[in-house]
Amino acid sequence: MKRFIGVATVVTLAIGYSSVVHAQVPASPVTLTLLGGAAMPMGDLDDIGDMGFTIGAGAEFGMAMLPFGLRAELGYTRFGEWELTSPDGTIKLRPSNLAVTLNAIVGPTVPAAQIRPYFIGGVGFYNAKFDADVSGSGFDFSGSESKAGVGLNGGAGVRFQFVGFSSFIEARYHHMFSGMPETTESGEESWKSAGYLPIVFGISIGG
């Protein structure tokens, strides 16, 4: 009987020690993020583009016990084709962009909470592109024009925490300082700022 009690005590202590050690091992500070959703052109960009889609992937860096983290992200956005038809012909435009962004994520830290709101914002490098098709009056032309430049983005989201992964819904406005072409009064071509708003669903794996 004494031997049984001694063995039971050792097993209990071993289990308790294992639980403490497991609790002290921090979760991985890096998680893989995948996202996708709708993208709405805003302002002047809405005049030459329709609602489209955005997809992206990235990595988040941070610890669960801290109220902030970082997300490095690569995203592609393509807007719906815009078409203008007249007796002289048809013009079709397809705006798109490829973006690399670095963002800070700030939100309340509640370890037991399964629903966590957060704010996200940062800087990015955007390559805006416009594909054009012009036809009519015996003239057909297809081409594209692109411009790379910096931009800003910011928004908010809600994260839903599960075991081993989390999902989130996020809305984030992107402002590109060289986002769309324009023709000046002197007839010269230049690029002006443009913005768009993606609303996405994503998952984060790991951490």
Structure in words:
With 207 residues, the chain is mainly beta. 11% of the residues lie in helices and 69% in strands. The chain has one helix at 2-24, and strands spanning 30-42, 50-61, 68-80, 82-86, 89-106, 115-136, 139-161, 165-183, 189-206. The chain has an eight-stranded antiparallel β-barrel. A hairpin with a 7-residue loop joins β1 and β2 (50-61). The radius of gyration is 25 Å and the shape is elongated. It starts with a helix and ends with a strand. The relative contact order is 0.19. Residues 1-26 have low confidence and may be disordered.
Topology:
Layout: H1 2-24, E1 30-42, E2 50-61, E3 68-80, E4 82-86, E5 89-106, E6 115-136, E7 139-161, E8 165-183, E9 189-206
Antiparallel strand pairs: 1-2, 1-9, 2-3, 3-5, 4-5, 5-6, 6-7, 7-8, 8-9
Descriptors for this entry?
207 residues, mainly beta, 8-stranded antiparallel β-barrel, 9 strands
Structural class: mainly beta
Percentage of residues in strands: over 45%
Strand order of the largest sheet: 1-2-3-5-6-7-8-9
**Helical amount among residues, as a percent range?**
10-25%
